[in-house]
Amino acid sequence: MNGMNGHQNGDSNGCGGDIISQNQLKGCWTIGLINSKFRYLTAETFGFKINANGASLKKKQIWTLEPDTNSSGDSLIYLRSHLDKYLAVDSFGNVTCEADEKDPGSQFQISVAEDGTGRWAFKNVVRGYFLGASSDKLTCTAKNRRRLGYLSNISTYADVETVAELK
């Protein structure tokens, strides 16, 4: 034990080892989410703020994709930050990353591009809208993937094209 938090060698969730090894044991994926402007989704350490400003994949840009084991083949997932907080959407479409536990607003459905690029979009199950972002504000207000530039070229009004890059 290190005397600070009662955990050994940085073990904060009882699994031991690094985050990638822990996630593999649990059946989760460790990913970075990058938008069409090649900026990573970032969970800031201070105030649980999130943005799409990351220039490279570092600790603050690492997300854990947790499959919903209760869903019946619907590709439902939860996204957890390196701070062990869940990405969630409120009733107004605002995206937060403060929840310690999974709740209905933190469940997303993966939609994979049919054009062979492997790009993903995340649709919030409760709101029925797609996740998008400007550089420093995430929202869940896009009704279809095309507005996000998911299946077409990015236009000036598009917020973000969310893409999963497996690491």
Write the layout of secondary structure elements.
Elements: H1 19-26, E1 29-34, E2 40-43, E3 50-54, E4 63-67, E5 76-81, E6 86-89, E7 95-99, E8 108-112, E9 120-124, E10 130-133, E11 138-142, E12 163-166
Antiparallel strand pairs: 1-4, 1-12, 2-3, 4-5, 5-8, 6-7, 8-9, 10-11
Order of helices and strands: HEEEEEEEEEEEE
Total of DSSP H or I helical runs spanning 4+ residues: 1
Number of strands: 12
Low-confidence regions:
1-17, 147-167
Integer tally of domains: 1
User: How much helicity do the residues have?
Assistant: under 10%
Protein name: Fascin-like domain-containing protein
GO molecular function: actin filament binding; protein-macromolecule adaptor activity
GO cellular component, one term: cytoplasm
Subcellular location: Cytoplasm
Q: Could you characterize the architecture of this molecule?
A:
InterPro entries: Actin-crosslinking, Fascin-like_dom. With 167 residues, the chain is mostly beta strands. It has one helix at residues 19-26, and strands at residues 29-34, 40-43, 50-54, 63-67, 76-81, 86-89, 95-99, 108-112, 120-124, 130-133, 138-142, 163-166. A six-stranded antiparallel β-sheet has the order 9-8-5-4-1-12. The chain has a two-stranded antiparallel ribbon with strand order 2-3. The protein has a two-stranded antiparallel sheet with strand order 6-7. Residues 1-17 and 147-167 have low confidence and may be disordered.
